[in-house]
Amino acid sequence: MSKRKLVSFDWALKRLLRSKANYEVLEGFLSELLKDDIEILEILESESNREQAHDKSNRVDMKVRNQKQEIILIEVQYEREFDYLQRILFATAKAITEHLSRAERYERIVKVISINILYFDLGHGEDYVYHGRTQFHGIHYHDELRLNNKQQELFGKQYPHELYPEYYLLKVNQFNDIARDPLDEWIYFLKHEEIEEGFRAKGLTKAKEVLDVMKLGEEERLAYEWHIEELRYQASLYYSSFMDGRMDGRMEGEKRGMEKGMEKGMEKGMEKGMEMGMEKGKTATAEIMKQAGEPVEKIMRYTQLTREEVEGL
């Protein structure tokens, strides 16, 4: 039997999962990731949350609250951004200030958990789920700083990192498709938009029902088809710019080689032109790949340029 096709998670966040009737899907995902029993109280509206007719960005930001009154930021991101890590830092800082009234004391600052589902390569690392938090360690005795007794009584926490923002980075494309636990089942779905028979992670049964393409109304189905075409269009633009740069560089090099050959001989000029064309093509290709955020090692492998040449572009 063929697997039932499900809509992509980023589109579902924008169009389907805002409904209170469908909270079970997000609650299941968050519960499996955070190893906690999460109940969504509300989805907080913001400017980045409001989908506009002209919005072609493959990004959606969500802020939800759990039973501990902690704010959780969920961000689905397809675009390549060099400053992505700084941007999620800014988002958590903004969430903290937005939810602290001017007259409130700092002790009322809420905890923020930033969950980032990434469909592009962010940094170097072998894992597909990364967790970051702020911890204070002694430089002499290497102990971790704990809150004092009064602070522990006031906040109900033992360590500063329990008060500070935490970050989860899910590098979906790096997942090897072997689901070893419920979280892996969710990541498999995020990567393939499919739910295998036998998956039992919280929220996936509801997701299979809610996100079934065949059950969408005509308006929703047409909107989803437009979304998929937009993704294909963007992918095509990226590939076309890559190939155009490669071909333009080669043609420019050949042209210059021909002009040089007219002065020193057709045969030598052709050889020089081809050489310059190849070098120009390599450089143009490397520049496009570098702007797209590709790793240096990958650029070196595709263009045969040295590390120094790539980093110097």
Give a written overview of the molecule.
With 313 residues, this protein is an alpha/beta fold. It is built from 10 helices and 5 strands; from the N terminus they run ααββαββαβαααααα. It has helices at residues 9-15, 23-34, 84-98, 149-155, 182-192, 204-210, 218-264, 266-291, 296-303, 307-311; strands at 59-65, 71-77, 112-118, 129-133, 166-171. The protein has a 5-stranded mixed beta sheet with strand order 1-2-3-5-4, sandwiched between helices. Strand 1 and strand 2 form a beta hairpin. The longest helix has 47 residues, at 218-264. The model is unreliable at 47-58 (pLDDT under 50).
- Work out the strand percent: 5-15%
Low-pLDDT residue spans: 47-58
Report strand order across the widest sheet: 1-2-3-5-4
How many H/I helical runs?
Answer: 10
Shape: globular
Topology order in helix (H) and strand (E) letters: HHEEHEEHEHHHHHH
Mean pLDDT over the residues? 78
| Helix/strand class | alpha/beta
**N-C termini distance:** 51 Å
Q: Short summary of the structure?
A:
The protein has ten helices and five strands, in the order ααββαββαβαααααα. The chain has helices at 9-15, 23-34, 84-98, 149-155, 182-192, 204-210, 218-264, 266-291, 296-303, 307-311, and strands at 59-65, 71-77, 112-118, 129-133, 166-171.
